[in-house]
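thought: fold this chain, then report.
action: predict
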Amino acid sequence: MASQPPVTVEDNPDAAATKKLRADAQRNRDRLVEVAAAAFAAHGVDASLEEIARQAGVGIGTLYRHFPTREHLVEVVYRREVEGLCQAADELSRTEAPDVALEQWMQRFVDYIATKRGLTTSLRILMSTNSTLFSDTSGRVTQALRRLVEAAVAAGAIRDDVDSSDVLHALGGIYSAPDTKDWRDRSRRLVKLLMDGLRFGAGKG
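observation:
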């Protein structure tokens, strides 16, 4: 019996429609997560889900189909922020000088902290129900920073007595700073001051 040619999307309009629907659904989900991250950073975890859906260009029903609870959306946003932060470390390492990569990554870290601060209440709830969420994600961030610091030290771009855990501790102070209108601007200035300290005396060992 002669073999039959494979059925292509062109041969099956229903398959094309299904593929398009899935692509549209993924775009909607990605857009919801992106808008939610900005909303949580700006307004905290109590940001209106209806407003998030509206800004994402979908109905509230679509939001709940992707994220049945607020905590589900919070977890996805949090994981997205961690993933973006770690990817930024790899990308900056490939495209920038080691000290510049470190500084730009720390500026990106400010945005990560802004979102995390907005998620505080729900993250506490998740901590009690998902014991691996924070151990997995915090370890990835720590490793990303360590790679950047070690590369900058090896290049002689920052002091050779710098430990990445000390840098992370310094950045952690930004998280606990008072939540004022100019918090993000002040935090970015603090990152610049921190980098000045890291660069001071570099290459003189």
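thought: worth noting. The two ends are 79 Å apart (CA to CA).
final: tokens above.
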